[in-house]
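In this supplementary section we document a worked example of the pipeline. Step one takes a protein sequence of length 247 as its only input; no multiple sequence alignment statistics are reported here. Step two produces a three-dimensional model, which step three serialises into structure tokens for compact storage. The input and output of this example are shown verbatim.
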Amino acid sequence: MYGRLNGVKIGRENFLQLYPDARHLSRNDEFVAFETFPKAAVENGHCYVQDPSTTIACRLLDPQPGEKLLDACAAPGGKTGYLAELMQNRGLIVACDRAAERLALLDENMKRMGTAIVETFPIDWIRDPVLEKIAAAALFDRVLIDAPCTNTGVMRRRVDLRWRLTPADFKRMQKRQLEIVRAVLPLLRAGGALVYSTCSLEPEENEEVVEALLDEMSILRAQQEKRSLPFRDGFDGAYAVRLLKTR
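The serialised model returned by step three reads:
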């Protein structure tokens, strides 16, 4: 089990002194490993339990202090909290999700982590019109779309997926992913960056989505992509690509 250190509240050396059962990860200074759930560290807001692969998209987005960000599919908030830390807790993050109860959990997580720049709004990007309060915060400097997906990158922890998924699921998710990007893109300013990410290993949900977006939208230009592969990196699978909105 991995925990991301919450730099908003505590430094690495102090964390390791307070929680001697935490094991240093030589490949990633922002994370530690635990044998059991770190109840005290989580309750104190000193760490957030998440896989190191989840931070790839955040680092690719490269948010800066004082900027305005949209985290379009944010709950339960692991990436949201890390984005706030990268922004030194300065600026604004509008965090959205279609499930209000999951946003309530995100609010609890942000409060515990000491994150003060996050505002949450429930929205289904495919079905709902853009809320006035979200539109009022636009245009955003950067947007993260951590899209709903088939989760094949975490299959080692969710073995039921091996038997539940069918080929039709990948195309169904691709359609949904494209619809979310289309709905969110107008909220990004010209010259702003959009990172599209999944915890899927499937090209239908990753490269094919990006190819479709670039074919459809001449205002987008791909800049960089990164991925985590379980058999190579030892963490969960993840994919992220950074797109520039040119105008």
